[in-house]
Predict the structure.
Amino acid sequence: MLCCWVPSSHSLLSTTWGWGISACASHSPLSQPRSLKISCMDAGGTDSDGREYTTADEMWREQAGDPNKKTLWYRHGVSYWEGVNASVDGVLGGFANVNEPDISCSEDFLKILLSERFSADVRHQPLVALDCGSGIGRVTKNLLIRYFNEVDLLEPVSHFLEAARETLAPGCHTNSDIHKAVNFYCVPLQDFTPDTERYDVIWVQWCIGHLTDDDFISFFKRAKVGLKPGGLFVLKENIARSGFVLDNEDRSVTRSDSYFKELFSQCGLHVYKSKDQKGFPEGLFAVKMYALTTDAPKKVHRTKSKAKANRPGTIK
């Protein structure tokens, strides 16, 4: 799986471009970026060369403001990952040592979600996950296939997906009759639409930074149809301290927490639970996990305490 790793301001990891990146990108023309303008206060940002942008809208107009620019944006992203070795060290940008703490923290988060969102009755049925930006199958192999009966992998870089197919082939110790990788989709994120109500969890890690804001929104809106009732998205990504950081080399954007939350709102998604990644080396971006649902959190109706309810009111 690709990871957008970034020491200081440079994104060294990128999980496969995550869907979002397609070499041939036959996506629709860029919708008016002005209609997707991010209003959060810290929406200004910088690129990996130190250039400052006043707003995210300014940056996106320059990088992907017309169909030709947008095609080049995605093509350059995929090209970057096509030159990376299909290995853990390769997809993690030379930071293979983060693999173990990454999986451990993700597993803790996933176990909480499974216990809270999926009742015993539901869990007697086959659980199915989609691994977006799956890369070489790192997250599927080390985590998802142990908790889900079926896992589909989505990855636009073909030699990464072939490596995943070999690692997760029938007969491998990670595969069994009841826990197996089923479908391998060599499709960019922005062009993918899942089968209706197939997935309990759609896992999106270290790849959404390759999507423009409008493709980010359209992807999640399309992908909602792929969730079973009660299903959810898990998004795990690098977090900028404020605004955003554009990586000019692999064509990815690291967004701030407030930037993400505004995009979630435009997608019609709600944060069910979140967790910060722990145990990574210093010098890398902070990493955060979000569990996202299509249903709004239930409002808690507060009632007055009995003592207060029985207290005489002030006569005016």
The chain has ten helices and eleven strands. The radius of gyration is 20 Å. Residues 1-35 have pLDDT under 50 and may be disordered.
